[in-house]
Predict the 3D structure of the following.
Amino acid sequence: MNQADVSKLMSQLRIAVRPTKRNLKNPDGPEGRLLKLRKTVTALVKHERIELYYNRADEARGYAELLISNAIRHGDRHKATMELADYWLLEKQLVHKLFKVLVPRFENSNVSYTRMFKAPRDYPGMYYRKSVLELRGNPYPVLTPDNSQNRNLLHNVLLDEARKEFRREKLANLANKLAAETENATASTTATPAQAPVTETQTEQSKQAEEAPKA
Amino acid sequence: MAQLLLRNLTRAGNAALITKGTSSSITGAEPGSRQLHTTQACCEIRKLARLRVVDNSDLGKRAMAEGRPPRCIHVYNKRGVGLIGDKVLVAIKGQMKKGILVGLKQKQRIKQPQFDSNNLVLIDDNGSPLGTRIHVPIPTVLRTILKEKTLAKGADYTKVLAIASRYV
Amino acid sequence: MNINVRILTKSVAQQYAFKRIVTFSTKPTQQAAAAAVPQQQEVTGPTVRKPIVPAHYRFVYPEFLPDPKVEWRNAVREKLERLDMLDRRRQIELPEFYVGSILAVTSSDPHAAGKTSRFVGICIHRERCGLRARFILRNVIDHQGIEVVYELYDPTIQKVEVLRLEKRLDDSLFYLRDALPEFSTFDENMEAEPLEEGAPVPINDIKVVLRPRPWLERWERQNLLGVANIEQYIKDKHRKSAEKVQKPWEKYDLMKQYRATIPEEEQKEIFAEVHTELHTLELQRKRNKRKRTFVKPKHLA
């Protein structure tokens, strides 16, 4: 290879691509390797999340991505793309899923169509690394822990402080306003009803002041 | 010295330049002879490589017409592989004759022509050709090479250039 | 919440990251993109004009695309090479041609009598990319097949003329070496056959006739379209062995194709960089051509 092949045009993948392929040990050679990968891609489109060995998942991921990107690019009226789908999806009802479910799902996506996670391997057991491969937008619960609510993260601490300060400012403004109103009221007649809320806000402020050092 | 260096470079280049279509049958055009190859194809001019006589010398014409092209039995340089402009000893119709390589099948350097057959012009010991005309084009680089050789070796090889019909 | 922080860190990282070969997407993640869109619109609102690169550029200038082999990629070197190529193209007219076109190359040759040599022949192969792009010309002169390799950006090349612009059915025509000589014989004094402007490049569907075996390569294994009589010379055993080496699954091997091509986004980037320059050069060439054609009849009269 010393010149790029210009006869075909492909969209850029949004995943890291290895410079070379893995052979995936197979007695039937490259054809058997593709059959293995076809099974994986079919399972991925069918179940949307699968757990398998890392090498095979990583190889199959590129094929799944390209299959979807080709389907988005050419649509179901394109003969070559249909042939591709027919080859890669061993269960033929999944061809419908590809064009009618996955294409609309990923049409405006800016990120990769699949996600891959490293999975723990059981000890003692097979040595091979394991992984979870999934399509984005699947109906299952997410695998990544949600850290956004962790109070101890720096940005959350900062946000909390900012929130507190904002509230404090708002209350101070309110108090000033009320004070002005009471002054007006005393100037005109007698003033009593405004006192109650002022005390409430004061107590709240004191409470927050106590909380602040804890956070 | 510079020439030698240049040649070595060419040789190294040849090894690197092997691309599609380098594999070829044993050198030389042999229309009538049996096509039997027991070894891997080799484009180099080594001992026992067959050549094609491209001048109109009587001996060469008869040998080519009979379908018994000359065989290289010695290459007069220090690496045993003939490059363009090199003198070779050939066995032709039971005689030993000298000749100059004027066109090679091997990969050549950029801008220098590569021929479909290994061409040879028969010369005598003084460097003057046996024929009076070369009926195929010869590479222009031969001019420089043969002039240099004439100076170095003492024999006058430039007469070969004089009988050339066309350069490429 | 912390999404904003994530976006911030990401954009900062993108700004300061050393730009390397992209084997993955540099596109921002979904949320970041959503956040970035309004800003971009503000910025690019008035300057929407982007150079529109014609789709056929990748066929006309294939050497501007780098070698897709990841280990050999180097963004800086590629960019510098492109600049050098444009520099060369400013000096000399390097026309559009394909495998199967008939070219005449004039190059300076210190060994030749007039210090220049001109070779006419059919282009049988194009290879390599960047400054090392080269092509092979083949012709039969005085019943002697001759091939010459030229580098496209060689500074000693003085002129490249396309005498007949056309394509053939195959990507490389090495089988002409085993074909009858009349299929690679071209007149040296051939006149250029100009193509109408805007007309598509014609495909010459000539089928060449091969000599009998032995051949230089096993042509029966290569699924050639431009060969007429391959069936005539092969036996059952050849047919069987040819069948054995076929790789029908390769057209479905998407990742293999992906690794052999430059993705569309990258191609767009590359051609956007050189498009304006190439376009102006093309226009200039057209103007010059018109001038030349206009002068000729006057001269005759």
In short: Chains A and B do not touch (no CB pair under 8 Å). Confidence is low (pLDDT under 50) at residues 194-201 of chain A. Chain A has two domains: 29-135, 154-214. The longest strand of chain A covers residues 114-119.
